[in-house]
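Quick one:
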Amino acid sequence: NTTDPIEAYAQFLLNATTKGIGCDNDTLTDSYLKMAKELKADGLIFIQVFGCHSISNCYTMLKEKIRKELEIPSIALIFNKIGENLEQVKTRLGAFMEMYK
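Output:
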């Protein structure tokens, strides 16, 4: 697959904005777990826009499933608007990435 992952994710977000995600929290969290397993992910970074009810409610459920099923670290980065709090995000991501050194 030669699809650019950033473009694919951006397209997903655009579609979700206009059409909704179209699934419940279990389906959504299970899809994250499936992808993490397929990619053999060492960790998961969850981007959460404050006030997005479709996504924001599932992170607690996702974090618990990741802990139980995959035993990999995860972090949620929360934004009021994407692009805000960049220094805070940089600090949090830096600390998260230290686990892999």
